[in-house]
Write a structure and sequence with these properties.
Blueprint (H helix, E strand, L loop, with lengths): L1 E4 L2 E4 L7 H11 L8 H9 L2 E7 L2 E10 L4 E9 L8 H10 L9 E4 L5 H5 L20 H5 L1
Parallel strand pairs: 5-6
Antiparallel strand pairs: 1-2, 2-3, 3-4, 4-5
GO molecular function: acyltransferase activity, transferring groups other than amino-acyl groups
Organism: Pedobacter chinensis
Keywords: Transferase
Length: about 150
């Protein structure tokens, strides 16, 4: 799938992704994946449903869903490059992704965010119901330990 709007291209085509740009952002600018190795980013993209936003020859945004495309999808690694924020690109990207054919009819869509609750609430995300039933293993600073 691919659409163009206001000079931006929104696409789910992995061949358009600029791995160096994605790795740079995640490893240097994100709060959730500081120092993530390039190989880890590459492997995560290979096994996810990925989306990019492009302007001219630049990748200006990215997001990926970790999904079985049948019952569950986890949204992660969502970002818009700083010079392009405030133009509605996050909302357009969410609209493009949430209606993707491979993500229809799933039982659960999840994500974690420290600072974008307002964006995701516009698309139906809420705090977990019955959080006491959810469990996880969290390895804080895993990439810093590798550095």
């Amino acid at each position: 799938m691919q659409i163009s709007e206001n000079g931006f291209i929104f696409s789910d085509k992995k061949e358009l992704l600029k791995l160096d740009s994605i790795h740079r952002y995640l490893s240097l600018e994100s709060y959730w994946a500081k120092n993530i190795p390039f190989e880890t980013v590459q492997r995560s993209i290979e096994h996810s449903l990925c989306f990019g936003i492009y302007k001219d020859d630049l990748q200006v945004g990215f997001a990926r869903w970790v999904t079985d495309r049948a019952t569950f999808a986890w949204l992660c690694d969502v970002y818009i490059e700083a010079p392009y924020r405030g133009q509605g690109l996050s909302k357009k990207l969410m609209s493009f992704m949430i209606f993707h054919p491979d993500l229809q009819g799933l039982r659960r869509y999840q994500l974690a965010t420290s600072d974008a609750h307002g964006l995701y609430e516009q698309f139906g995300f809420t705090s977990l119901q019955n959080p006491e039933t959810h469990m996880g293993i969290v390895v804080p600073d895993v990439y810093q330990d590798l550095a």
